[in-house]
């Protein structure tokens, strides 16, 4: 008799809590997510207080959280919810400061309604459960704006004193930008004294923030091979042989790299 190994068990469904004060939005999200075999909506909430109570009761794998809700809003509830499960902000609120505040309070990602497809939302829910972050274009733009605003450059293209971001401070905002459109966050051009194209300047910003080639590829929607090609050109233009050397030049810590 031939013995066959047991069939592998299907992966456990991602258990989701949906928090939004609009009953139509809640119903639509629940219907969309529940139509997938590997996703289960375990609870709904109409405000932040209900969301916290439901999270305590159901211990979801992912929380989808609106920003503006009556009573306890999403930002107020976020620190508590983030201790229970990864939180994806899912909202119409795309103001840069709101995006940045959500990230400071523990959000894993940020999607603005109207900027993603149903399939992208499904992918984002699955990835959020695995701590892989997604941003829609408006949110991604706010993140890159925060990174770039941390830098101040003098007329020679060198970082002004105490303004160059550390790897640790910028990395928290840029480590997993994985749902950006190619034109989001495009650099307005090379910094003075640096002969880089707009795309190369963008990639150099991400290198300086500590991102890997794989993360840069996801952030810019290009292949890792294309990233490597850009990096080779960047190194040649900056006369550098390593990421550390290029980052030092880019952040103005090497006076002869101009």
Automatic annotation (TrEMBL):
Keyword Ribosomal protein: no
Any one GO molecular function term: DNA binding
Domain HTH luxR-type: 189-254
Residues with PTM 4-aspartylphosphate: 66
Entry protein name: DNA-binding NarL/FixJ family response regulator
SUPFAM superfamilies noted in UniProt: C-terminal effector domain of the bipartite response regulators, CheY-like
Domain Response regulatory per the UniProt entry, residue ranges: 15-128
The entry's keywords: DNA-binding, Phosphoprotein
Domain of life according to the entry: Bacteria
Pfam families in UniProt: GerE, Response_reg
Biological classification of the source: Bacteria, Bacillati, Actinomycetota, Actinomycetes, Kitasatosporales
């Amino acid at each position: 008799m031939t013995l066959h190994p047991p069939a592998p068990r299907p992966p456990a469904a991602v258990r989701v809590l949906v928090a939004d004060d609009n009953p139509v939005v809640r119903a639509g999200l629940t219907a969309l997510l529940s139509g997938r075999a590997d996703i289960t909506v375990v609870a709904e909430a109409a405000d932040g207080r209900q969301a916290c109570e439901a999270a305590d009761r159901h211990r979801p794998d992912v929380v989808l959280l609106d920003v503006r809700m009556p009573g306890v809003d999403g930002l107020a509830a976020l620190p508590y919810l983030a201790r229970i499960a990864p939180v994806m902000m899912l909202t119409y609120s795309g103001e840069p400061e709101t995006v940045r505040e959500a990230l400071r309070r523990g959000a894993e990602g940020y999607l603005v309604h109207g900027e993603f497809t149903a399939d992208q939302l499904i992918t984002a829910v699955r990835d959020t459960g695995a701590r892989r972050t997604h941003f829609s274009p408006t949110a991604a733009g706010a993140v890159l704006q925060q990174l770039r605003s941390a830098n101040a450059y003098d007329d020679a293209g060198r970082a002004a004193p105490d303004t160059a971001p550390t790897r640790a401070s910028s990395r928290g905002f840029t480590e997993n930008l994985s749902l950006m459109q190619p034109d989001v966050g495009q650099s307005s051009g090379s910094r003075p004294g640096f002969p880089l194209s707009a795309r190369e300047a963008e990639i150099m910003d991400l290198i300086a923030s500590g991102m890997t080639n794989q993360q840069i590829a996801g952030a810019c929607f290009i292949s890792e091979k294309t990233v490597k090609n850009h990096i080779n050109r960047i190194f040649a233009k900056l006369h550098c042989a390593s990421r550390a050397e290029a980052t030092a030049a880019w952040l103005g810590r090497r006076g002869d790299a101009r």
